Amino acid sequence: MDRLTILIIEDDAHINRVIFNALRQENYECTQAFSGSEGKMHVTLCDYDLIILDLMLPGLSGEAFIRELRTELQSDIPVIVLSAKDQLDNKLQLFTLGADDYVTKPFEIEELLARIHVHVKRKGINKPVNRHQHKNLILEEDTKSVSVKGIEMNLTKQEYNIVEVLVKNKTRVFTKQDLYELAWDDHYIGEDKTITVHISNIRTKLKQYDKESYIDTVWGIGFRLSP
């Protein structure tokens, strides 16, 4: 079975990251968006299994997003709404618009995960084999190994973590802060060369086995997996 793909649309960077990290631990494929318009763009580009949606978003609101998702885009992707609005009338309005579930802020991440698991079971999607491939690179989560053209690479723990983050989020651009916090599981303390040096080392090791480009620099933003 394919990996369950989840789109997180939440403008609060901290909440978005908490959800992203929790879902990543559950072995889900995730994309982050920080506005309704950005979320809509992702839906037009990719086929997601589930959407986690905040209501108070810049630009296109959560309510407007659901309306356009169901009408203009003709999509039946399940939507779990996150909102501080807990009045019954608000919930009924959202269900009428096309929301599938509702979690009231503030919430415990365990509750959100439980709701997600319910929708996973309904869709009949099982957790997949933890094997990911991009071009000639294969990443095995079970053994924490990366091989290129059948040859296993000698990566440090942080180098492996960086490759894993990029390979599991093929379309996303990661800032240095994103990569540092995900690969080191620690708070980013400011601008330094740590990520740049590690990316350079990974590229050098990849070139030993394959001339293909695997990591692109997005100037002024960060890094992403080469298409």
From TrEMBL:
Residue ranges forming the DNA-binding region read 127-227
Q: Which residues carry this modification: 4-aspartylphosphate?
A: 54
- One short Pfam family name for this protein? Trans_reg_C
Domain (OmpR/PhoB-type): give its ranges: 127-227
Q: Where is the Response regulatory domain?
A: 5-120
InterPro entries from the xrefs?
CheY-like_superfamily (IPR011006), OmpR/PhoB-type_DNA-bd (IPR001867), Sig_transdc_resp-reg_receiver (IPR001789), WalR-like (IPR039420), WH-like_DNA-bd_sf (IPR036388)
Keywords from the UniProt entry:
DNA-binding, Phosphoprotein, Transcription, Transcription regulation, Two-component regulatory system
SUPFAM superfamilies membership: CheY-like
Q: Which CDD domains match?
A: trans_reg_C (cd00383)
Return the protein name. Answer: Response regulator transcription factor
Species in which this protein is naturally found: Oceanobacillus kapialis
